[in-house]
User: Fold this.
Amino acid sequence: MKTLVLPPDQAALAYAKELIEAGEVVAFHTETVYGLGADARNDAAVRKIFALKGRPQDNPLIAHVHENYDISALVETPPYTAALRKAFLPGPLTMVYPSKGQVSPAVSCGLETLSIRVPASPTAQAFLRTVNVPVAAPSANRSKHVSPVTAQHVLDDFNGDIPLILDGGPSQGGIESTVLDCTGAVPQILRAGLVTREMIASVVGDCGVYHMRAGEKPRSPGMAYKHYAPGCRTAFFRAQNVEDAVRCYGREKSVGGTPYFLAEHAVCRTLSGYACFDLGSTPEEMAANLYAMLRAGECSATLLIGIEPCARGGVMDGVRNRLLRAFGQSEGDHET
Assistant:
């Protein structure tokens, strides 16, 4: 199969519609990361996504729709969700609702809920308006690999395996959408992202954060498994252990390796003379740069050494979540 990478013009969108209607998979730009989409109503097409990615069968997908799509045909919508949709959509927020069972059971992995996202990307909106069906789509990368923020990243993972990538340029948000459970009286964040707990609470008065229990089935994408991992050796150090990280760098260098640091700007400034990938200074910069730099790191480094950012809260909750998972860490782990 030849994989075409096309701008989202009229001809490419018409071809995308043909592919979706035929049960094929199409990769498309969103403002967060690129998605790997298929008709959410088509069981065989949805299962093709899982097979292409090598995705675990208990890891749910998100249904993407355009901004004028009537989601009441798909889900029950608790009253407070209207204010959230008005405040944040289209945008990087996925909302989990009680499902009406109108899509393939494979989308939600047998759960009685459905996750719905309305992306802000003009490319995604044009694609979703053209196909005018809910499109199930995880990130367009092999399972556990770094999420893609350019069409080239998608091509690196799926060249020859999918027919089309709709190229909308680099994804500016950089990390996946916030996933918000809206099945209870108070919404709960299942996966942190660019729409923060504080932002949600300012609209509806309160917002919780859900912590997955051991052995529990994932309720949304991004809740289980090692994710976002670069294809090179890695090491990770907490912010207070930069000297240990420097010694690790020296050991790799001494045996002929090519180590790189991945760290926030303030830390990179202190590491002048060392090879560094600078994530930036603000949470928004670090979110936008993280996946691109993890992808660059796997191409350049024999050992990528991550250093924990100091900032906490807000957008940094999402950045830290992705960074720790990329290096196989959790909040409770000690430094490597």
About this structure: The chain has a mean pLDDT of 94. The two ends are 42 Å apart (CA to CA).
